[in-house]
Amino acid sequence: MQTGLAAPARLPLDQIAGVVEQELASTPFVDVHTHLFMPSLGRLGLWGIDELITYHYLEAELFRSSRIAPDDYFRLSKQQQADAIWRALFVDNSPVSEAARGVVAVLESFGLDTGAGDLREARAFFGEQDLEAHLRRTLELAGVSDVVMTNDPLDPDEAPLWEKGAEADVRFHPALRLDRILNDGVLAGRPASEVRRFLDAWCMRMQPVYMAVSLPDSFVYPEDNQRGRLLTDAVLPACRDFHIPLSLMIGVRRRVNPALRLAGDALGRADLRALERLCVEFPENRFLVSVLSRENQHELCVYAGKFGNLMPFGCWWFLNNPSMVEEITRERIEMLGMSFIPQHSDARVLEQLVYKWRNTRRTLAPVLTNSYRLLAEDGGGVTRAHIHRDIARLFRGNFEVFCAREAC
Ligand code: FIX
Ligand code: ZN
What we know:
This protein is α/β, with parallel strands linked by helices. The chain has helices spanning 13-26, 49-53, 56-65, 70-75, 78-91, 98-109, 120-127, 131-142, 159-163, 179-182, 192-206, 226-241, 273-281, 297-306, 322-336, 352-377, 384-402; strands at 29-31, 144-148, 172-173, 175-177, 210-215, 246-250, 252-253, 266-267, 287-291, 310-312.
């Protein structure tokens, strides 16, 4: 039917890059996995310079760039730890790693001296911030409107806050974390029916957008153990009944060097046939999946092309570096079009949002531009509206649709 309206103008090749950058900059993102906490969860929420600098990624670097032993480091106060890391990684060496450069980017974003010899100015700045105003400013700088938390119903510091009725915040979305139940055996020996009642109670209390668990590279399914039984008889039925996905983060090897604490985890290549079996045997469940091994990424793309109830997300942890993000995102677009979730921040400290999402926009702009350039060269029409639509789908819509609560 002729509408009489002119078709939207196709972008000339040399304008595509600029439009991609503009649309990335102007689209507020949903951060689908973080370790941040809504303000009503109080001190669980980490922010400010000392937390930024004692990030476990930087602690791991410290032990390579100084003579301090982990045990001696962990005996220091938080400020002493931050001073040691600042000296070793930012004064005595060039902060060129992703995590170190990220701290520099955060300081720059807040107008602080990135070449300071110590942390006095930064501590004074963060010390005088009003948290709510600082939170609003940080989310704006990061271009993030929504953040999904990691909420552990068996964490002795967190659970009582929810039981007392922690005030919700529309910008922060709960995710019910299952590691203590499925991996650490905290409810070991309890029948699946009792674990199911526990999950039901916490889903009612917390209203999570998904349940989540990290799994080792050795994970198989089915497996004749507590984890296998609880997945089958408690977790997956509960996710179905509450119409929420299960997030599986596969490939982590915990505490390969226990002395480094949070920094002591590593990775391994997983057998993703476990994922295949879950998608086949539980077609009514939805699986939000990230894998930690570079070698598992291509398989994950292939599986995503076989199962509509599988949503790949993020370039997790050791993969959240430009060289890996570029490779992973290119192969996802080549195999899946725009039907995946490119990134999450995994932020543990509020201000990390600023650099992690700046890096994502910077790394993915040329990747997306390349995809549109190839399309245009092959005769496809690329308009600003197309780019706006696709970026909104990648960084908001795919997650919102996949996690929509209505019955499957
Ligand atoms: O299991 C997880 O949620 C991991 O992301 C964390 O355990 C890890 O320490 C992290 O923060 C990686 O970025
Ligand atoms: Zn995480």
